[in-house]
Amino acid sequence: MNQDMITSTVSGAIRAGTPLLFATIGEILTERSGILNLGLEGMMLMGAFTGFAVSYNTGNLWLAVIAAMAVAGLLATLHAFMSITLRVNQVVSGLAIVFLGSGLSGFWGQAYVGVQSPSFVNFKIPLLGNIPIIGEILFDRDPLVYIGYLIVPLVWLFLYKTRYGMDLRAVGEAPDAADARGINVSLIRYIYTIVGGALSGLGGAYLSLAYTPMWVENMTAGRGWIAIVLVIFAIWDPLLAMVGAYLFGGISVLQFGLQVAQIPIPANIMKMFPYLFTIIVMLFTSSERIKKRFGVPSALGIPYSREEKG
Amino acid sequence: MKSKLTLLIILISLIGFMIFAAPLKIGFIFVGPINDNGWTQAHYEGGVVALKKAFGDKVKITYIESVPEGAPSLNVLNSLAARGYKLIYATSFGYMNQVVQASKKYPNVIFEMCSGYELGPNLGEYFGRMYEPRYLSGLIAGAMTKAGKIGYVAAYPTPEVVRGINAFTLGVRAVNPHATVHVVWTFTWFNPPVEKDAALSLINSGCDVLAQHQDSPAAVEAAQNRGIYAIGYDSANMGKFGPDAYLTAPIWDWSAFYVPNVKSVLDGTWKSESYWKGMESGIVKLAPMSDLVPTTVKRLVKAMEKEIVTGKFHVFEGPIYDQNGELRVPAGKVMSDDELLSMQWFVDGVVGRIPKK
Q1: Is residue B90 classed as helix, strand or coil in its secondary structure?
Q2: Which of A1, A94, B57, B160 is most buried by its number of CB atoms within 10 A?
């Protein structure tokens, strides 16, 4: 491996990891509140489609990003209504969101196949961007990548260092105790399911506005599902989510780099590694003590109802 | 009694006449949406659109989009046949086993299967020799590269894709004997970000022209982004994604098959056959070359195109050496269709490996 290859792999890892990062952070927030939303793929698709359509029609990229987040958030609201208010099975509701999102984006998106719209361009940060190698890799990127850098520490601080973050974790950990302390469990779950959806919409918008600036049906191609795996990989921690997202991204880019360099590691084997890591993490975190230690939300996927608790 | 019989005869002949005069009901099943800018759109335009234009009221056409390959397609095929569709086109390789089953169940329905190999009394096969325009696009790539390194983003190591890479490389080497073609497998027909990553890895390694056997324009877009040249595939629409990169694309024009095929069914002259024609039939073409291609190169390509169309030149005529320098096709010999249809080795000039099964 020469230096060029390392530079291009790391740089590609960040590009490929960014859509995963947004979706994973979003799902971490949702799951931390105790709601499992398997609908990421559908919400990302709606984000990708909406972002592209708005950018095409208005030429305004930031409006496109906001619209993508809003529409994906709307889809998440539906999931929240089903799983919090109606208390239906969250897995089923999540899967419904996947099909709804992919169906609607495919249907409405027909008019946008094969057209071009404005897309995000790289913006070199003064001074930092001039550092050799590192500057090129980290600080000569498109604005959404920078948002990815910022969102991770902010969410981490929010989760662990603020009262709101503590409330969120309490709701996902022990909703009855949180309720007894006067926290509105349903409200908190609504909020973070919607915020999580909006972030996955941002991940989708990254695909259609920066990664490959075009709209094609099902362009997320399974990234929503990878993000769900990444949440477990990251043990519901935003910092580890960043590591995981860039690692997954790096492996998906490296498989091509290795082929170009004529290094014979089969792509199929490479693709397996992230999932292998995830299974190891799952084995590692299967014991109750370790779950507590790392903050796996105990009430994940369990609908909360005050009456039943009597 | 007699009058009743007369009435019956009149009725029967009337029904017979109605059946006779009824339009031929034609069904298509597509693997993707009709506006995918690629494979399915080419079948839609060359099939549904061209047939309506050519035959008007004589045909009644329906199509079903995004039919999954494999088992789920059987229901779709059966229901079309049960609803009275007499000619059914299955436009993707993954439908083959189901088409065979349906063709046995409905012996009075004609089935045509694209890119497969099974034949039956009421089952025909059709495909095009895409390697011919791929060879021509190789001539252009060979002439345009400055670095002598050309990237090829490829989907799966099937004989069809391998054949395309080889034909392309033979074209490249014909004008640029030292240039190399670097292959990266994506293991997907359609996944824009993955295709783009593969394209970027080739560009990063120094390739200055990209070709592809993928159904999305992501590689063309990547080339535009990084200021190099690209050759598309499937449809000339790919040029929209890289106006400063796009040179040309080997493309399909399925109407060259569909229109005569439907005519033969209407005339009653249809017979089961394996249709595999090249540029002389018009089923495969090289899209108009963009202004980035110099006139001299355009002239060379046009001249070679004429040689291919008139049958004077065969792309896979020896001597052809493989990657290890071994002579695979001796001088003067042309590879047989069977050899082409099972091709699993790279010609000299390709850098890359065919993954073992």
Answers
A1: strand
A2: A94
**Taking the domains of chain A in order of start, what are their residue ranges?**
3-296
Q: Per the CB < 8 Å rule, is A260 touching B205?
A: yes
A12 close contact with B: CB closer than 8 A: yes
Which amino acid is present at A293? R
Give me A258's structure tokens.
């290795």
Give kind and range of the element (H or E) at residue B149: strand B149-154
What would the pLDDT profile of B219-249 be if each residue is shown by its tens digit?
Answer: 999 999 999 999 999 888 888 889 999 999 9
Torsion B60-B129-B342-B186 (CA) sign:
negative
Report the top-level CATH class of A3-296: mainly alpha
What would the pLDDT profile of A87-120 be if each residue is shown by its tens digit? 999 999 999 999 999 999 999 998 888 788 889 9
Nearest C-alpha of chain B: how many angstroms from A294? 33
Residue A32 to residue A191: CA distance in whole angstroms: 12
| Residue to test with chain A: of B35, B215, B216, most A Cβ within 10 A | B35
A34, HSE (Cβ side, Cα atoms, 13 Å)? 26
Is the minimum CB–CB distance between A214 and chain B shorter than 8 Å?
Answer: yes
| CATH fourth-level superfamily of B131-249+287-351 | Response regulator (3.40.50.2300)
Global ipTM: 0.80
How do the domains of chain B map onto residue ranges? 2-128+254-281, 131-249+287-351
Give whole-number Cα distances, B338 to B4, B93, B243, B276, B342, in Å: 61, 17, 39, 12, 6
**Whether domain B2-128+254-281 has CATH 3.40.50.2300:** yes
Residue of B nearest to A110 (CA): B35
Asked if B193 lies within 8 A of A219 by C-beta distance, the reply is yes
| d(C-alpha A251, C-alpha A77), whole Å | 33
Phi, psi (deg, nearest 5) at residue B301: -65, -45
**Among all residues of chain B, which has the CA nearest to that of A19?**
B193
